[in-house]
Amino acid sequence: MARYYIETYGCTANRGESRHIERRLRDGGHRPVESPEAADVVILNTCTVIETTENNMLRRAAELDSGTDLIVTGCMALAQETAFEEAGVDAQVLGWDEVPQAVGNGECPTVTPDTEPILDGVIGILPLARGCMSDCSYCITKAATGRIDSPPVERNLDRARELLDAGAREIRITGQDTGVYGLDQGERWLPELLRGLCDLDGDFRVRIGMANPWGIYPIREEIATLLAECPKLYNFLHLPVQSGSDSVLDAMRRQHSVAEFREIVNTLDRTLDEWTLATDFVVGFPTETEADHQESVHLLETVEPETINVTRFSKRPGTDAADMKGLGGTVKKERSKDLSARKAEIVGAVHEDLLGTRREVMAVEPGTGDSIQAYDDAYHRIVVPGELTGDRSLGERFEVTITDHNTFYAFGEPV
Ligand code: SF4
Q1: Cβ–Cβ contacts within 10 Å for residue 234, how many?
Q2: pLDDT tens profile 154-202
């Protein structure tokens, strides 16, 4: 869990994005502080409305770049991704949605403090259980959340029904590690829960939240079949691999191998026509050699995930990794830059393949300005111009043609 400082510029919409980031950071167990000096991570949410503003953003980013991890997000980060690097600022440039994951240092998010479901627009957030069955060497979250304590499947189904009755059209099941739900009771209950959700009445979608590879590996065939057979499940998995090197994974105590991660991906590739893989990498773990880094690059380039979170390792007090001798100099920065550059190419190519395709989407969240964030059934994020009204209101389904993309998402025009 990190101490963060966030500074926001620009319009009401951008301030709304900061509130959204802060809510997710709070749910992830992170703590706000009053000054950049007191923070582990500084977040600059930028505006790019006029040239003077851009110059101000660059100047402020340079001031904040003083040794603490700096994340730059917001409109200028989206529109001029390379401007900060060109100005000599050492920052991770990320889309708004990527910020909470990057602050998390590769740890799983804590579920909401009271683990109660939340309805946010048409998104129903359903925390399955708090805790995990792992003991990752860099993780401080575990100290707060402990071993997983799984409530029965029927209880979570009741909570899902409540969310649907309250208007949810997308249920996001969350937890530190959704793949080990039930394991404290001796078996994995995720497939049973998914079957129960698919049997509920209503027109809605379900997104499976973060699941570590070791929890999913034994049930990969069952999960792939369920995704293929139940149209209510988005064809999506968030499997944080963290490294492409088995020796780094061992030092992290991640309990999975690179081969097992690949086998899960291969199973879904074989079973589904189209799906989205989201994964995370921690760059610059204390034991990571250049050869280990190249293994991560190789994994990224051969698996080609559509959503990739790259986080520079930072020490969290009280963890075993905090006692390890860190990588000196600019190694972490350079490897993070390297992986992020490859990420941009891979995600760009994945989005390029979507160009010209026609697909049905559901409006799930308001976008920036007059735009709508929508998702298709393979959980591609598609930004559609226009207002959230009429047959394009939140929760409505409509068809789009993909016309453009950037590193973060695709753009679609209604058909
Ligand atoms: S799975 Fe690992 S990173 Fe996630 S909460 Fe548990 S110990 Fe922490």
Answers
A1: 22
A2: 999 999 999 999 999 999 998 889 999 999 999 999 999 999 999 999 9
Atom of ligand 1 nearest to the CA of 110: 5
At 329, give phi and psi (nearest 5°): 60, -140
Domain membership of residue 113 (yes or no) is no
Ligand 1 lined by 141 (C-beta under 6 Å): yes
**From the CB of 319, is ligand 1 less than 6 Å away?**
no
Q: Is residue 44 part of a domain?
A: yes
- State the closest ligand 1 atom to the C-alpha of 108, by its place in the atom list counted from 1: 4
Distance (Å) from CA 339 to ligand 1 centroid:
23
Say if 160 falls within a structural domain.
Answer: yes
Domain that holds residue 51: 3-103
Question: Do 98 and 72 fall within a single domain?
Answer: yes
Same domain, 178 and 292: yes
- 315 CB-near residues (< 8 Å, 6+ apart): 138, 321, 322, 326
| Rounded distance between C-alpha atoms, residue 99 and residue 95, angstroms | 7
- Whether 137 is in the pocket of ligand 1, judged by its Cβ within 6 Å, is no
CA 246, distance to chain mean position in Å, is 23
The per-residue pLDDT for range 317-358, each reduced to its tens digit, is: 788 998 999 897 789 889 998 998 898 899 889 899 999 999
Binding site membership of 183 for ligand 1 (Cβ less than 6 Å) = no
For a mutational test of ligand 1's pocket, the pick from 27, 128, 133, 142, i.e. the residue with the most ligand atoms closer than 8 A to its C-beta, is 142
Closest atom, ligand 1, to C-alpha of 107: 3
Q: Is residue 8 part of a domain?
A: yes
Q: State whether the beta carbon of 300 lies less than 6 angstroms from ligand 1.
A: no
CATH (domain of 379): 2.40.50.140
Cα separation, 223 vs 234, whole angstroms:
12
Tell whether 256 and 331 lie within a shared domain.
yes
